[in-house]
Amino acid sequence: MGRKWNNIKEKKATKDKNTSRIYAKFGKEIYVAAKQGEPDPESNRALKVVLERAKTYMVPKAIIDRAIEKAKGGAEENYDELRYEGFGPNGSMIIVEALTNNVNRTAAEVRSAFNKNGGNMGVNGSVAYMFDPTAVFGVEGITADEVLELLMEADIEACDIFEEGDSVIIYAEPDQFHAAQEAFKSIGVTEFTVAELTMLAQNDIELSQDARVEFEQLIEALDELEDVQQVFHNVDLDD
């Protein structure tokens, strides 16, 4: 299961060239989470998850505060949370999550991105069954054995734990995100290299060079859409 971490690393590695777009996406996501519940992360778990993710992408505090203040101010912007499923080159599988104030526009743009880059849209359920909702953490300054012992003491069952460079990567059930986070904080670990609620493919696939180029163009086209928040796939992009 460990090599699936490469797809998360690949997504985070694109941050430097897409900083403004990533910050804009987080601003929207923070606003939606704050507006749907209390604008306080201590009493709004959805907001707390988004803020933890934003921290690992180094989203500026000004952007976070602006989004929360906008929600507090009773702004009337309303967004629908949507999921699209589809296929890329050579049967690769893709899940697209979006926040939109215009469902028809978003559907048309996502469909166009698939069609123009060797893919096609699928129906609901055509892809998602091959992915598992997963909480992913990356921590430093602690060994995999120490992580395992910590989680066992907190009665948290990890799906996988492995070392990657200077980090220990942990996969857990999504409903244990907060419990795992609190367990780490209890031993002084407050900074994470990654803290995500993601969709991990049950099996990664490899593509030929030509198919991979086309696939990467498709992923980039989807990522560039204003309404798209996250894109998950089952292609191993590790070189």
Major beta sheet, strand line-up = 3-1-2-8
CATH architecture type of the largest domain: 2-Layer Sandwich
Q: Which sequence of SSEs, written as H and E, runs from N to C?
A: HHHHEEHEEHEEHEHE
CATH topology of the largest domain: Alpha-Beta Plaits
CATH H level of the largest domain: which superfamily? YebC, transcriptional regulation domain
Pfam family, one: Transcrip_reg
GO molecular function, one term: DNA binding
Subcellular location: Cytoplasm
Keywords: Cytoplasm, DNA-binding, Transcription, Transcription regulation
Features of the shown structure:
Alpha-Beta Plaits, transcription regulation, single chain, 3 domains, globular, 239 residues, TACO1_YebC_N, cytoplasm, four-stranded antiparallel beta sheet, DNA-binding, alpha+beta, Arc Repressor Mutant, subunit A, 8 strands
Question: What does this molecule look like?
Answer:
The chain has 239 residues and is an alpha+beta fold. It folds into three domains: 2-72, Arc Repressor Mutant, subunit A (Orthogonal Bundle), CATH 1.10.10; 80-129 and 203-233, YebC, transcriptional regulation domain (Alpha-Beta Plaits, 2-Layer Sandwich), CATH 3.30.70; 130-201, YebC, transcriptional regulation domain (Alpha-Beta Plaits). The protein has eight helices and eight strands. Strand 1 (80-87) and strand 2 form a beta hairpin. The longest helix has 18 residues, at 19-36. The two termini are 17 Å apart.
